[in-house]
Design a protein that fits this description.
By secondary structure, the chain is mostly beta strands. The protein has one helix and four strands, in the order βαβββ. It has a four-stranded mixed beta sheet with strand order 1-4-2-3, with no helix packed on it. A hairpin with a 2-residue loop joins strand 2 and strand 3. The longest helix has 7 residues.
Length: 76
Amino acid sequence: MRLTATLAAYLPPGTRGDSVTIEVPDGATVGQAIRLLNIPPKLERLTVVNGRDASPEQPLAAGDILSVFPPLAGGR
């Protein structure tokens, strides 16, 4: 799992960098993995699994890389 920018604060204590490996039960979803890290449900975020947009209901498989980051803004 990769957490970027302000979301990196939710990585487990003692974790270095912006990524961590976490174990989730078989059939766990993106939303369940996010809850394991105690990221507040109302906190805006984008989720991507293996480089593709992912909904909270998407199941995770062994070896998947879940990336979570705050929404981006900018431009004109």
